[in-house]
Write a structure and sequence with these properties.
single chain; about 375 residues; alpha/beta; Cytidine Deaminase, domain 2; Dihydrofolate Reductase, subunit A; nine-stranded mixed β-sheet; five-stranded mixed β-sheet
């Protein structure tokens, strides 16, 4: 098999992996293609945590044609018993002759062990085709298992002068219909969406996915003193995870738990739990990718502590003057201390400018 064909079939596996977006956490997104004598004999992708892995689905579809075939998968096959049996064993039992993987699994339970099992069984193993794209689609999983934090994207709709709401806190609608629809697509691409108590009190958002297909992410609320009402929309449309201070009233904890929320209490020296601790907690909850939607104080805190990987900004072509800034309560002493991002994409649609940027060293 030549390199061009390996890249072609690996790209198909990666496309399949994307179909699991929003459902696989804490697992990675994985797709698999089995090729026998120049034709696709089987394919599969990991649909959700607890369901069969991509390799198992592909092997089942291939049946007897798996013997002597080449199997393409965007991540090293697992070698441990979890909620499903190890894929490396299934590949060996099926008689696959060659395995092509885009990258090694960073999970310490796997990392190289799957390849070793395959080698020992006499299966040819090659690693590397389409590795950059394989890393990108699983960047949240990789960061969580390596650094203990989810991948964090900061999202906001703002005016040209950086306002996300007027003085009263009203923000409907700064962005146009296209931008709002794209914001909902962003939600489908993340495992959880995080807001502060100020946003819930002022806007009472649903934080669900609407007008587009896809799954709604889990809602995470930063509410140190547990001011949220169990009648808020986030309780009507799901079971939010509320993060509060250990100093919070235990009676309020019980009220929210009875309303269906999960409540996690973290130490707080300055009134609110440290964001680094919050992210560590969310990683423990199995969240690979986190979308931070604000408000101003929360966005400013993530920016000032440099605890973000991507930004997604929808800029409306208008000026507001007085109003709530994108970065509330943030002070940088000098320009050289201000965090910066690499702009990766700019899209102009119906007047709104959508800017995407990333912190280059997020996975270094």
């Amino acid at each position: 098999m030549n390199e061009a064909k390996d890249r072609y079939y690996m790209s198909l596996a990666i496309d399949l992996a994307r179909k699991g977006t929003g459902r696989t956490a804490p697992n990675p997104r994985v797709g698999c293609v089995i090729v026998k004598e120049g034709r696709i004999a089987g394919w599969g992708f990991h649909k959700a945590c607890g369901l069969p892995h991509a390799e198992a689905e592909a092997l089942q579809r291939a049946g007897g044609d798996a013997k002597g075939s080449t199997l393409y998968v965007n991540l090293e096959p697992c070698s441990h018993h979890g909620k499903t049996p190890p894929c490396s064993s299934a590949i060996i039992e099926a008689g696959v002759s060659r395995v092509v993987a885009a990258m090694k699994d960073p999970d310490p339970r796997v990392s190289g062990r799957g390849f070793s099992m395959l080698h020992e069984a006499g299966i040819e193993v090659e690693v590397g085709p389409c590795v950059a794209e394989a890393v990108r689609i699983n960047r949240g999983f990789i960061k969580r298992v390596i650094k203990g934090h989810p991948w964090v994207t900061l999202k906001a709709a703002m005016t040209l002068d950086g306002r996300i709401a007027d003085e009263s806190g009203w923000s409907k609608w700064i962005s146009n219909e296209w931008s709002r629809k794209r914001s909902h697509i962003l939600r489908t691409e993340h495992d959880a969406v995080l807001v502060g108590i100020g946003t819930v009190v002022s806007d009472d958002p649903k934080l669900t996915v609407r007008e587009v297909s896809g799954y709604s992410p889990r809602v995470v609320l930063l509410d140190p003193s547990l001011k949220v009402s169990p009648g808020a929309n986030i309780f009507r449309y799901g079971k939010p995870l509320v993060i509060a201070s250990t100093r919070a009233d235990s009676r309020k904890v019980r009220v929210l738990e009875n309303a269906g929320a999960g409540v996690i209490l973290l130490p707080s020296e300055k009134g609110s739990p440290a964001l680094s601790d919050v992210l560590g907690c969310l990683a423990d909850e199995g969240i690979n990718e986190l979308l931070v939607e604000g408000g101003s104080k929360v966005l400013g805190s993530f920016l000032s502590e440099r605890l973000f990987d991507d930004v997604s900004l929808f800029v409306s072509p208008r000026f507001m003057g007085e109003g709530k800034p994108l970065c509330g309560e943030v002070r940088w002493l000098a320009l050289e201390n201000a965090p910066s991002v690499f702009i990766t994409k700019k899209t102009l649609v119906e007047g709104d400018l959508w800017i995407e940027g990333t912190v280059k060293c997020s996975l270094d």
